[in-house]
Amino acid sequence: MSNRLSVGFIQSELYWENTEANLAMFEEKIWQIDQELDIIVLPEMFTTGFSMDAPKLAEPMNSKTFRWMKQMAAQTRCLVLGSYIIKEGTVYRNRLFCVYPDGTHQYYDKRHLFSLAGEDKKYTAGDKRLIVEWKGWKILPLICYDLRFPVWSRSQNYEYDLLVYIANWPTPRVDAWDTLLQARAIENQSYVLGVNRIGEDGYGTQYNGHSAIVDYLGNHMAAPSEKDYFTVKTLEKEPLNAFREKYNFQLEADQFKIID
Description:
Layout: E1 4-11, H1 19-31, E2 39-41, H2 54-57, H3 64-76, E3 79-88, E4 91-99, E5 105-109, H4 119-122, E6 132-134, E7 137-143, H5 150-153, E8 162-166, H6 174-188, E9 191-195, E10 198-200, E11 206-208, E12 212-214, E13 220-222, E14 229-236, H7 237-246
Parallel strand pairs: 1-2, 2-3, 7-8, 8-9
Antiparallel strand pairs: 1-14, 3-4, 4-5, 6-7, 9-12, 10-11, 12-13
């Protein structure tokens, strides 16, 4: 258990629908990291970009990308997070993997599918949240469009310490991304990390990043940027717990259950 957690994300352009090129690119970026850290977070669909061509791009479980994530986690001794396209039986999933250094893993399937891009026609939505534990911290990982739905991320009785969003969030709506990351931090009294991509995808959609780390007060620890970069910030548990104890707003929070 640790009172400090070093978290890092990689904001990058993505090679369109080219798994091999993206894995090679991210591996090179990871090996350029010269800081000690506990978590590495990659964007949504980091091997392909936000593609709707699931039949062509999907991988079975325990295939190429999963083995790569296991290798990165083992060699860096970090928890590695990122999503890619999975085929499970006859359905396709936008699945976020949390891979530990010992090779074990947990996963979360994107709940809110982006109908404006037809994601709901190509992929099957998940119906369960996932809270992972790492070095004494509880982490809730979610994906892109989930950010717009606060009930899905709502913390009850401080059930997590860090909320992570991985995304392909386009430039025209990036102001909403900026605002909602801060809102999720404030309303849940939690650290929030959001990692987005940059560049242009195969559909001509533009992305300008604005990845960020926000503290429980809504302040930026890592300010939004539009460049290709990697950053590491250290989160501290003691001030988080002290703030929650002094301003225990969740005592008055509505208790609820999500009914599918």
